[in-house]
Amino acid sequence: MSELSRLYLNALRAVEAAGRLGSLTAAAEELGVSLGAVSHQVLKAEAQLGQAVFVRGPKGLEPTAFGRQVLAHLQEGFRHLAAAAALGRDETANTLTVSVPPILAAKWLVPRLSRFTERAPELRLRIDASTGLVDLDHADIDLAVRIGSGGWPGVTAAHLLDQVVFPLCSPALAETLTRPEDLASIPVLRDRGAMFTWEAWLAPEGLSGLELTEGSLYSDAGLCLQAAIAGQGVFLAWPTLAAYALAEGQLVAPFPGRHKTGYAYWLVTSAQRPKTAKVQKFEAWLREEFAAFAEADEAP
Predict the structure, then answer these.
(1) Alpha-carbon distance 156 to 154, whole Å?
(2) Are residues 239 and 117 in the same domain?
């Protein structure tokens, strides 16, 4: 058994504080305990060490020769412990962990993050690309961005942007489309994980129940986007996914109609934990980015 394992850390803390401050009263104030508790811990440490650490005189505590050796080691040891604890605090204080759906992270968030790091260079970002549920009360996730209808229990959800969808295809395929009914003649690319169906767009266009030609099925919306760029069919996409491909002319929207899915982007934080300064800073920036994106996306 190691020597340390037979000693109580609280007793050693009391010895170190009393020796450094030269007073049981001062040690009690620093440790936030009673004078009696400090005195008891010092006596316990001396009993465990087997020798007196202090001589108690009219001028207060004086370390014995043995005590001076013990205190030198304790003071060095507690300095190292304090440094280790500070490292943990600094890492946590300067790291912002954000959980974001993979597609939103890759296609929309990551290309914009340099603007946040310019605004908050003191923060180190950690992006957790995930759609899974997160226990924001206990996990090391500071906040999350989620897509859904909101109303999740136990969290605070702030609305960022409604999700709208519209058909996209390659410029070559778009030339074959003159009216929405023509979609029935082009293979439809489907995302197996989509939260909505083509009815979200067809119904507002007065085409509910239109029979579409089945194209390839993909497990990821990003793959559907790439398939549409390759001319494999038409895909029901949304602005945060397709903005770059549209701007570069890789895809076009053959029809003007854009319709809400009933879902939205939400910034989700713990309802129990107070918002830290770093969370507030990221939330303010994210709101600005979504607002600017929405304004640019709606511009003619």
Answers:
(1) 7
(2) yes
Distance CA 27, CA 105 (A): 51
**What pLDDT score was predicted for residue 90?**
47
Whether 69 and 163 share a structural domain: no
Please give the Cα distance from 256 to 259 (Å, whole number).
10
Q: What pLDDT is attached to residue 228?
A: 97
118 and 34, same domain (yes or no)? no
In the chain, the percentage of residues whose pLDDT exceeds 70 is 92
The total domain count for the chain is 2
DSSP state of 110: G
User: Which has the closest alpha carbon to 180: 196, 163, 166, 160?
Assistant: 166
C-alpha–C-alpha distance, residues 260 and 136, integer Å: 28
Dist. CA 216–CA 102, nearest whole Å: 21
Note the pTM of the prediction, 2 decimals. Answer: 0.69
Enter the tokens of residue 229.
């760029």
Written as one string, the DSSP assignment of 263-283 is EEEEEEEESSSPPPHHHHHHH
The answer to whether residue 206 scores a pLDDT higher than 50 is yes
Closest CA to 255 of 279, 232, 274, 236: 236
User: Residue holding tokens 């994106």?
Assistant: 293
Please check whether residue 161 is in contact with residue 293, taking contact to mean a CB–CB distance below 8 angstroms: yes
C-alpha distance from residue 144 to each of 122, 161, 297 (Å): 20, 15, 23
* Residues 143 and 244 both lie in one domain: yes
Q: How far apart are CA 258 and CA 255, in angstroms?
A: 9
